[in-house]
Each structure stands twice: as structure tokens, then as C-alpha cells.
Amino acid sequence: MARLCPLFSGSSGNSYYIGSEERGVLIDAGRSAKQITEKLAYCGIPLSAIEGIFVTHEHSDHVQGLRVFAGRHHIPVYASFGTLEALNDAQILNGKFPCAVIGPEGLQCGGMEIIPFHTSHDCAEGYGYLVKTADDHRVAFSTDLGVITPEVEKMMEGADFVVMESNHDVGMLRNGPYPYPLKRRILSSIGHLSNETCAEYLPYLAGKGTSRFLLAHLSSENNTPELAYQTALCSLKMAGLEENRDFILSVAPRENVEGSTILF
Ligand SMILES: [Zn+2]
Ligand SMILES: [Zn+2]
Question: Measured in angstroms, how far is the CA atom of residue 63 from the centroid of ligand 2?
């Protein structure tokens, strides 16, 4: 059985484990190595299960613990060429762990097939990932993107499980404390997806076969888990879909304090 364990999600750090009980990969390592190690143990995932770390992009909330964690356990790191270059410039690639560019064809790791796709975000070369598990589930990770491009759409279509960014409520962001340039950046096509944009899109994905949605990368300033959840739920219901019959909807916690794992 496949399992997805959201360890951390949001602007203070992102990291997910996906795989089976015995083997799998991390998507991002955006908390300290110590915190990631503790959280994995808490969630019952042995360190030996992690056969690779797939990095979405070089922002610190995705790579904060990468150098120490990958170096300490000698875990290979995969990312786009642009991301690896940016990580090298930031002296995160220190030769203590292997790293490789993952091209559009993807690669096998942790007993799964992992295929990247480009995201529109203010970084060197952002990736989302489509993970095909050993038991044939397709899980798409789409966070840190300002807009859903045709490439992103193509990869998410037909995924039975989608981890989707629902970063902010537009009203809360506009009226909130962030400085104007930051608000503009977040709202731009290279920023983050709003609750509204995410929610509008979910019925389309449900129509293409997605039955499980995990809302992720919520802003702590400009969103609440309840608001993100209700916005998405409302949109799916308006499309005539029924929760727990046609779809399962949940929100990735900022920190997985319950040690919960999603089995599917
Ligand atoms: Zn980012
Ligand atoms: Zn981020």
C-alpha cells in the first residue's frame, strides 16, 4: 500500500515522504535536518527508506535541511539543472552527497517512477513532481506556482491524488500586513496559488479522475486551514460532487504533530 506523509507544509518549511513502508523518497527538505529526522521517526518512517530527495526549487522553505540531512545519510538529491545550479551557488552542494539533474523523462527511485514538470515561480527553475507508485497510484505535487500552465495541467490530469497549493485568501492578502511589493509578487503569475484559484480548478481535476486532494503550502499570515478547506469544498460541491463519495479533501498541517500518514 502506498503512503504519503506530509511532514511539514507552508512558508516555514516543506517536506513530504512518499513511498511504501519500506522504501520511498522525500519531496523537499525544508526544515532543519534534526527536525526532519525527528518527524520521520515520529511518523514511523525509517531513515533507510529514503532513497532520494527530490527538490522542487531552491527557496529556503524547501531546502533548509538539505545539506546536512543528505550529507549525513548520503542520500542522492535530484532537481532541475537550474535548481542544482542555484543550490551550488548557495554552497548547499558540498560534495558530501550525490546529486543529479532529473530531466523531463523522469527516473526510477524508491521503487517508483518520478517525473518532473515545470512550475511558474520566482526561482531558477521550479519543478513539481508526478510520482507513480509501485501499486500504480499517480500522485502529483503542485505547490509554489503562480499559475496552472498547460504543462502542469497535463501532469495533474488523471492523477488519483493531488497535493495542491492553496496558499492564501486573496482578500486576507490584500488587506493584510505584507508590504505592497510582496503582495504583488505573491499574486503574480510567478507567485503562489490562491485558495480561489485552487478551488476553481479542483472540479476539473475530479472530472479527470482525481479522488483525493491535499491542500498544501498554506500561508500562516493570509490563510487559515478552515478557510482553504471550505473554499475548496464549496467549489467541489457546487460542481455536484459529494465529499467522501466522489472525493476526499484534507489540508496538510504546517507540522505533522499527530504523526499521521495517508494510506491509499
Ligand atoms: Zn518558493
Ligand atoms: Zn515554498
Answer: 10
Ligand nearest 57 Cα, by number?
Answer: 1
Which cell numbers hold the place of 217?
503550502
Supply the pLDDT for residue 68: 98
Q: Which CATH number fits domain 3-263: 2.60.34.10, 3.40.50.1820, 3.60.15.10, 2.40.50.140?
A: 3.60.15.10
* Domain range list for the chain: 3-263
In the structure, what pLDDT confidence band is assigned to residue 36 with cuts at 50, 70 and 90? very high
| 133 CA distance to ligand 2 middle (Å) | 24
CA of 232 to the centre of ligand 1 (A): 22
pLDDT at 225: 98
pLDDT of the residue at 118: 98
Calculate how far, in angstroms, residue 192's C-alpha sits from the geometric centre of ligand 2. 8
Q: pLDDT value at position 217?
A: 98
HSE-CB for 148 with a 13 A CA cutoff: 22
What spacing in Å lies between the alpha carbon of 131 and ligand 2's midpoint?
A: 19
CA 52 – ligand 2 centroid, Å: 20
CA of 221 to the centre of ligand 2 (A): 14
